[in-house]
Write a structure and sequence with these properties.
With 265 residues, the chain is an alpha/beta fold. 46% of the residues lie in helices and 15% in strands. Helix 10 links the parallel strand 6 and strand 7. It binds phosphoenolpyruvate. Phosphoenolpyruvate (PEP) binds next to strand 8. Its EC number is 5.3.1.1.
Length: 265
């Protein structure tokens, strides 16, 4: 299975100067690894970074013709193209920057922007209509984890994909290429707490089987783990065959720690 390591920069860095510095450091170190034929260059691991929408065009331009892919963190639910939606960026506008993927359904968007089931169906449809790949984030809260509800929550969140396919069955054929699922327990994001590898593995197996059932994909959906992944714990996640990569927040803001996670996969 193709491995992916994706940096979610969230509302960072503060200035375009800092974005340039991070990108330069990243590209210099990836080049050095390629020259030295170190793990990142040899492995199958694909790298992606998702800057804020204000920096997306510059980052996409800088990453054109490099091995690193650029992605948005969200697209508008209201229109795939243009319209009177103040503050939104459409999937078409994202694609126009040269970005080829978008994150959708991150827990911070679900929490702070109240993204609903129907809103996420629209976002997925709009992204796919503009030929963007989607990193679809799911995961339970601490309370849901404590109550043993992880798989129920995940089933509910994955039903967005099922319902989107009911509306647009033609998308099923390309889903294994255009969709990555990121399992991110909310309680593990930015907290330094992580589930055990065995717990993540079991949940990923469930996600793969469930999505395969929607789209007849025979277990081919890629599932990444996210939540406090760093240079120290990445190896343990990478060692499990159900964990196809990582969605990385805090540790993606430094080239060294991001590439250390990539080297693990
Ligand atoms: C995230 O928010 O997607 C994430 C994984 O964050 P962190 O790595 O900082 O926990």
């Amino acid at each position: 299975m193709q491995a992916w390591v994706i940096g979610n920069w969230k509302q960072n860095p503060a200035t375009s100067h800092d974005v340039d510095a991070l990108l330069n450091d990243l590209l210099t170190k990836v080049d050095a690894k390629n020259q030295a034929k170190m793990p990142t260059s040899n492995s199958q691991c694909k790298l992606m970074v998702a800057p804020s929408c204000i920096h997306l065009a510059a980052v996409s331009a800088r990453l054109a013709n490099t091995s690193i892919i650029s992605a948005a963190q969200d697209v508008s639910a209201h229109s795939a193209s243009i319209g009177a939606y103040t503050g939104d960026c459409s999937a078409q506008q994202v694609a126009d920057t040269g970005a080829t993927w978008t994150i959708l359904g991150h827990s911070e968007r679900r929490q702070y922007h109240k993204e609903s089931h129907d809103c996420l169906i629209n976002k997925l449809s709009h992204a796919f209509s503009q030929n963007l790949g989607v990193v679809f984030c799911i995961g339970e809260t601490q309370e849901q984890y404590d109550n043993g509800q992880t798989l129920d929550v995940i089933n509910e969140q994955l039903s967005v994909i099922k319902d989107m396919l009911v509306q647009q069955p033609d998308l099923a054929a390309s889903l294994s290429e255009k969709l990555l699922v990121a399992y991110e327990p909310v309680w593990a994001i930015g907290t330094g707490k992580v589930p055990t590898v065995a717990e993540v593995s079991k949940t990923h197996q469930h996600i793969k089987q469930t999505v395969a059932g929607f789209a007849d994909m025979a277990d081919t959906v890629t599932v990444l783990y996210g939540g406090s992944v760093n240079a120290d714990n990445a190896d343990s996640f990478a060692a499990d065959s159900m964990i196809d990569g990582a969605l990385v927040g805090g540790a993606s803001l430094k080239a060294d720690s991001f590439l250390a996670v990539a080297d693990a996969f």
